[in-house]
Please model this.
Amino acid sequence: MTGTSTRPLLDVRDLVVRYGALTAVDHVSFALEPGETLALDGPSGCGKSSTALAVLQLRRPDAGEVHFEGRELTTLTDRELRPLRPRMQPVFQDPYGSLSPRHRIRDAVAEPLKAQGRWSTADGPAKVAELLDRVGLDPSYGERRPDELSGGQCQRVGIARALASDPRLLVLDEPVSALDPSVRAGVLNLLADLQDDLGLGYLFICHDRDVVRHFADRVVELREGRVSGSWRPRRSAAAPR
Ligand SMILES: Nc1ncnc2c1ncn2[C@@H]1O[C@H](COP(=O)(O)OP(=O)(O)O)[C@@H](O)[C@H]1O
Ligand SMILES: [Mg+2]
Model:
């Protein structure tokens, strides 16, 4: 292709993660375009979370390459990685587990802004209110603590925290699996809206076939640490996006 060539947002090549003698991720490769949702699907223990952690460099892979926005991350030092980390943000399964029970919601959302030197007393609080609003929470929730929120509200806070870093990629590890079926659709619709508005790429780990079918542009199947297939869901007109 000539002219406007696009490069993938994320290009994972021959990724390997080992825990001692166990090879949890065994030469896994996939690529994700900006604004795309790639689902990783497969049975429990097949290596989905290990892949997510290795992509995020939260656990350094044992072999392989992770190209993110054109940079190869596995060869970077922790110091070199630091300015890139905000651009790839995790959202984990347990919405309460990722929030400190003692801190108010507004502090949880402000934390990444402060850590990245993007906080000022003049406009920080308004930025936090805007982030809460963006995930469908009234800014008054900022005064509450996690145990005063439902699971779905907590997961929205987790998403707001991720957005505070102004990411290009969200790595979502079973983000709705712990939620009541009645609130799942709301969180999935929020994620779809955010993607449309912000052009985020999603690496979306999920093993609910119905969710994957409606939500993903492409699905990569893992089995015992290896890619066993990939497919494109044919979205029906009734799909929620
Ligand atoms: N920290 C760890 N130490 C040792 N083994 C692990 C660790 N994390 C995961 N495993 C093992 O690696 C394999 C893949 O796990 P995981 O990546 O969590 O799979 P999934 O997310 O698909 O359920 C499993 O056999 C699991 O028991
Ligand atoms: Mg997992």
Remarks:
- The chain has one domain: 10-231.
- Residues 168 and 200 are 5 Å apart (CA to CA).
- Helices lie at 48-55, 78-81, 105-115, 124-134, 151-164, 181-198, 209-215.
